[in-house]
Design brief:
It contains nine helices and seven strands, in the order E-H-E-H-E-H-E-H-H-H-E-H-E-H-H-E. The longest helix has 21 residues. Belongs to the short-chain dehydrogenases/reductases (SDR) family.
Length: 236
Amino acid sequence: MTQRVALITGAGRRFGFELAQALLAEDYLVFAHYNTSKAGVEELESKGAIGVQADLADLNQVQALIKTVQQHTLKIDLLVNNASCFFNNEAVDASLANLDAVFRVHTIAPYLLISGLQQELKESGQALVLNITDIYVDSPSTDYLAYCAAKAGLANLTQGFAKALAPEIRVNAIQPGPILFLPEHDSEHRQTVLAQTPLKVEGGLQPMIDTVRFLRDNPFITGESIKVDGGRALNI
């Protein structure tokens, strides 16, 4: 199989969706994972992607996702652990299910996907695992303690798997900053964040996609985390 193959978790919206579109334009076979964002994945499917649904907070569904991908392909060239759930302290403290989901989605599910798809990644001969972490793994927000801890776990897994899977598989991470505000972010919030960001702009998704390509195309980088944040990590 000469066509390159990618699996992107959380591909139904925002960065995952745009990355999937970019890879489809490069003639990748894209497995577009989603939990609830079906509309975005349906659009990707119309362009040739294979949509795969799973709630990554349910570990049985993670295992089923692995088996589904394995039924369709013998190799994976790019695995992007992008899916996320974002709960503040109040939401986590109000529900043990939310606390459990934060660690399952950000840390346990990526562990299972990397481990479970190891053979398919090795078959590529040039595979890259790319974990989307956060600038707050180095300086956690006191409002999102569990989220930051779970992302820090994924950052640690990045380095651990980079050592364990070399030289056949490379493992890197991207730490995004203010690349794309959420609809619920009001003007005051946006102005505050941009004022604390040295480059003073909302980055957009293209710098993230460019960084994916850089890490994919440079065969001598593994175990690395690259901040794509306009310098915001300098001020948190």
